[in-house]
Amino acid sequence: MEIREAIAERRSTRAFTEREVTREELYEILRAGIMAPSACNMQSWHFYVVAGEERGKLRGVCADWVAEAPLTIIVCTDRSAIEARFGERAKKFAVQDTALAMENMLLAATGLGLGGCVIGAYDQDACAVSFGIPEHHHVVALLPIGEPREKIPPRERKPLEDVVTFVGGQKNF
Ligand SMILES: Cc1cc2nc3c(=O)[nH]c(=O)nc-3n(C[C@H](O)[C@H](O)[C@H](O)COP(=O)(O)O)c2cc1C
Prior knowledge:
By secondary structure, this protein is α+β, with helices and mostly antiparallel strands. Helices cover 34% and strands 16% of the residues. The chain has a single domain (3-163), classed as NADH Oxidase (3-Layer(aba) Sandwich), CATH 3.40.109. Flavin mononucleotide binds at residues 11-12, 14, 117-121, 155.
């Protein structure tokens, strides 16, 4: 799939078929994640892949439907190295790194005919405890992935005029 098509076709997907995500697909998605740009290429991310029976532990951590996805990637910042270098600013860098990795993974999933959704609403402590996530890995989002159960219409976007301010530049913008 062409990149423009993947950007246009990606939808937040919250209902999945029973079809498993294959190992090849999962690795393609994870590789797309780590191809994202990151501050000083420090790649301050860590991913936990939750599949099989372990998915049950997602109940109580976030919305129940997430546990129905064939797999969920728990996206964490790993700030140990980046914090040593950048101090307080590392927090922002690490979150930016993971955000870019997530979009790459969602686009890769779209290219494979799969879908996913960024989940920002989850219980931070319950998530860390349920999956044995150590303190230096800070969970920033969950990313359930699977085959969409139905075609999802696009959600409306604000018009560009509302969200873009041009500062100087060429006349033909
Ligand atoms: C930071 C962030 C947090 C989000 N958290 C949730 C969430 O907790 N639950 C959910 O169902 N969708 C969540 N979403 C998905 C958004 O609702 C979705 O991206 C938005 O409605 C636009 O729809 P689209 O992604 O299909 O274009 C989140 C998205 C982002 C970027």
